[in-house]
Amino acid sequence: MYDDKINSILEVLTLEEKVSLLIGEDHWRIKAIPKTDLKAVVFSDGPNGLRKEVSTKKQTFMAQSEKAVCYPSLALLGSSFNRDLIYQVGKMIAKEARDQSVDVLLAPGANLKRNPLCGRNFEYFSEDPYLSSECAINYINGVQSEDVMACLKHFILNNNENNRMVSNSIIDDRSLHEVYLNQFKRTITKAKPAALMTSYNKVNGSYVCETDLLKKEIREKLNYKGLVMTDWQAMNDRVASYKHGLDLEMPGGFKPTQIIKAVKNKTLDEKVIDEAVCRIIHTAIQADKNRKPSEFSVLEARKLAKIAAIESFVLLKNNGVLPFKTDKQIALIGKLAKKPRYQGAGSSRVNPREVVSLYDEFIRNGKRFEYAYGYEETTEAVDEALIEEAVTKSRNKSLVVVVLGLYEKEESEGFDRTHLNLPINQLKLMERLIVECKNIVCVIETGSSVLLPFEAGVDAIMLSYFSGEMGDAGLYDVLTGKFSPSGRLQETFLYDLNDLESTKYFNQGINSYYKEGIYVGYKDLLSLGKKSHYPFGFGCSYAKFGYQYVGVDKDIEKLTFRVLVTNTSNIDSKEVIQIYMGKKDSKIYRETYRLVGFNKQMVRQKTTVEFQIDVLLDDLMCYMTTTKQMCLEEGSYEFYIGTSSSNHFKEVSINLAGHSFDQNPNTYPIQMTTKEYLTYFSQPIVENNITSKYHANTTFEDISDRLLGKVLLSVAIKKIKKMSKDDLTVHMMTKAMKAMPLRSLESSTNGFFNQNRVSGLVLMLNRKRILGLIKIIKG
Where does the record place the Fibronectin type III-like domain (predicted)? Predict the structure, then answer.
């Protein structure tokens, strides 16, 4: 199965040496291969830049990291709808990774934005699986073109942050395979990432790395030979995980005695260990081959970071005030204009080279303007004095630019949002400005969608998401017309959070039911006839375009649609043509529209460009629960060509050969009871239901009603505060730690609280104090 070099290394390793490789050396490295000159493999977080922690004798999670260029978040990059741009960003991040001696980049994150409340949505590309996969493929290809290995994450159904280490994603067969699994399989097949990271959560009752989703769907069906690793502290059952195709547990720093015992007592076949070790050796060999000097340039990287932001900003509204002339009398309002929210919080947080603000750009370009805070960015408390100052400086100005956005402690890895509202002090500011000022331009800095109740009262809205360290430099160029905005929404902006069916089931307990089925994001709204504030795929331009459908070419594997796009304006701009698929006569339930193709090109002023958009027939398939495979249904398909999910200028019907579908049920009642929902499953589902009150998967927060639990929680929080002096990091890690299960103590204490001691702690919490204490003492 592996080459002679790998087999020759494997043959000379003892069982103890082989098993030692299954757990990391520390927080960021795979152990050096014994009896060889193969060095330790070095990991680093991504995805919007490199987060390589500063080397110290004592490795800690979320420690200070080396300086690196901070790029736009994946949420903004996804809005670019530009495959080559995402490839170039991945390539440049890899150059800096090589420059800092990093072998594996832990990126990209390709989880779907099932619901906008997920606190980590800024790290993910889209609510649409096709767009998300296309972005991930190009990001991975860019990274690996520079001989740095990419790690696709988080496999799979890691769609919420609250209780992420113990939550149970309960999902029907078709939705699992057609929407969530197919996206990962498509990305793995086309990009061949060197590594895959499993997620924290359970799926239908079992942790991901203990299921056939890994063993059968990835290892066997895709014949995937890459490294499969856990997320940090995600390991639950080592024996079950290695049996199902896992290779590496992270982080390390302790001895895996349980695995050695399992091999010796025949509960784990040593061949399973050998296969995992072979893949680890292969990774080490590849890393050794890849190591070479980097041609990384900070200047070129920062230029690309700016271009990436420019290409991705989404103009949601424009009543003609943009682009603005540089001689206008301007008021610049908002604390975020001076202290931008340019990246998200958590493991993706980059230590940037140099952050540029919109305020800085106004000064650098010689703008005459007045500035006011308008609000504080660390609290939602309304400060009437700050609002009054902002209104006074804005009154009688010919243009008012207001920068709004979410505060750092409201949106982060480790916890979810509770609503989609902007801070109340910003909304109060907007109420006053709308009444007393004119020509208001709003810039929105956020990691995910927000509600925009003031939309009717302003003249323009520019969505910048988290745009990286050079984002505001690019924003100034777009606002002043040096570039036309060409980003398109990779997620839906809502009127009301409850318009999404998934909201009813999101964070409703440890068991998370995906009752919305295949209807995620815009597919939910459009299939049920609901309106969005701004639809998926939407975005304005300074230019004006005309469209002419030319035709479609058909071959065995794909359809190629051809469209002429004419720029009728005097402004150069890029345009995005999108193709959605529907099937009105389908014998199974389907979404009304599904994105299946897109293309973005520059169209110069007064010119016409032909767009060719490929649609792969594989991307038209549905999952058949009767045959347990993706199939193309025979018959007529409708293809909607347009500029968003809700705006189509041409409908084309095409007959395709395929399979005859005869599947029940052929309708999907969105609103159903749990009992009704479970009829869509092929096998019984295990809910989280453990008889003893406390167990290894009980969280720290749930043991805080015991004195022992309170003490442990207090000690853990003190340790976090000692590890980091950054308030945001402490806030995020405290939130995440409260939701961590007791089993995570083993890796977080470098093995001191091994499984026996964790079992003893559980016994003590369940009032079996003496027996528990004995287990803890024995260790």
Answer: 575-645
Q: Give SS3 for 260.
A: helix
Whole-angstrom Cα distance, residue 22 to residue 745?
18
Structure tokens at 193: 């990432």
**Cα(759)–Cα(779) distance, integer angstroms:** 10
- 419-455 confidence digits (pLDDT tens): 999 999 999 999 999 999 999 999 999 999 999 999 9
| CA angle, residues 523, 526, 527, in degrees to nearest 5 | 75
> How far is the C-alpha of 532 from the C-alpha of 116, rounded, in Å?
13
- pTM to 2 decimal places: 0.95
Q: What's the gap between Cα 157 and its chain centre?
A: 11
Residue 667: what pLDDT?
Answer: 61
Do the domains spanning 4-290 and 545-663 agree at the CATH topology level? no
Q: What is the torsion angle, in degrees rounded to the nearest 10, for the CA atoms of residue 127, residue 128, residue 130 and residue 132?
A: -10
Q: What's the half-sphere exposure (Cβ side, CA atoms, 13 Å) at 620?
A: 27
Who's near 538: CB < 8 A, 6+ residues apart? 314, 316, 488, 489, 643, 644, 645, 646, 647
Chain-centroid distance of CA 421 in Å reads 21
Q: Residue 83: which of 148, 152, 139 has the closest Cα?
A: 139
* DSSP single-letter state for residue 369: E
Q: If you search the block for the tokens 């803890």, which residue do you land on?
A: 776
pLDDT, tens digit, 9 for 90 and up, residues 510-553: 899 999 999 999 999 999 899 999 999 999 999 999 999 999 99
Residue with tokens 């309002």: 333
Domain ranges for the chain:
4-290, 303-527, 545-663, 701-778
Beta strands in 24-84 (DSSP E): 29-30, 41-45, 67-68
Picking from 132, 47, 121, 111, the residue whose alpha carbon sits closest to that of residue 468 is: 47
Cα–Cα distance, 656 to 14 (Å, whole number)? 57
* Residue keyed to tokens 């990391």: 24
Domain spanning 303-527: CATH 3.40.50.1700:
yes
Q: What angle do CA 616, 617, 618 make, to 5 degrees?
A: 90
471's tokens:
């984002």
25-53 as b/e, with b when 16 or more CB fall inside 10 Å?
bbbbbbbebeebebbbbbbbbbbbbbbbb
Q: What CATH number labels 4-290?
A: 3.20.20.300
Catalytic residue ranges = 231
Residue 79 has pLDDT above 60, yes or no: yes
3-state secondary structure of 327: coil
Q: How far apart are CA 154 and CA 230, in angstroms?
A: 9
- Per the CB < 8 A criterion, the answer to whether 521 and 536 are in contact is yes
Contact yes or no for 186/216 (Cβ under 8 A): no
> Is the CB of residue 124 less than 8 Å from the CB of residue 98?
no
Q: Quote the CA–CA distance of 541 and 673 in Å, as a whole number.
A: 44
Q: What is the CATH number of domain 545-663?
A: 2.60.40.10
29-30 and 314-318 as β-strands: parallel, antiparallel, unpaired? unpaired
Rg (CA), the chain: 26
E-strand ranges in 86-213 read: 104-106, 149-155, 168-170, 195-198, 202-203, 206-207
CA 178 from chain centre, in angstroms, equals 19
State the Cα–Cα distance between residues 522 and 533, nearest whole angstrom.
11
Pair 150, 195: CB distance under 8 Å = yes
Dist. CA 11–CA 397, nearest whole Å: 77
Per-residue pLDDT of 18-66, as tens digits, reads 999 999 999 899 999 999 999 999 999 999 999 998 875 555 556 688 9
The region that residue 217 occupies, defined by phi over 0 for left and psi between -120 and 50 for alpha, beta otherwise, is: alpha
Is the separation of the CB atoms in 596 and 577 below 8 Å?
A: no
- Sheet of strand 195-198, all strands in order from the earlier edge strand to the far edge: 29-30, 41-45, 104-106, 149-155, 195-198, 227-229
Cα atoms found within 13 Å of the Cα of residue 268, Cβ hemisphere only: 25
Q: Residue 367 has which token pair? A: 């703008």
Token couple for 454:
């003031």
